[in-house]
Design brief:
about 25% strand, Alpha-Beta Plaits
Length: about 120
Amino acid sequence: MAERFIQVVYSNPAEGKTDAEFNEWYDNVHVPQLLEIPGMLSARRYDLHDAEIYRFPGGFVPEHRYMCVYEMEGDVNAIMEKVVAGVSDGRIDMGSCLDLPGSRMSFWRPRGEKVGA
């Protein structure tokens, strides 16, 4: 069985773009295009949840307002090569709404079993 893992992407709209424009593109263009890539299994987007703990001494408000968690399966490098190829040939539109230089992504595999309360 191929390895399953997640990709976490933190992002914001590009300067001059509205949240509405950004979310329209991300939900209706970007995610569907990425999910056409073999190995990309699912995606779920999140909005930053405000919490008082951010403003406690030593705390900080996270710099990104949006997060997307992609479930993936296979070889991360091979999948990402397909994503880069899709961007290069125009099959994946990175959009003018995304602050690409300010975005962050990372890949994670499970550590141990899921523990419940």
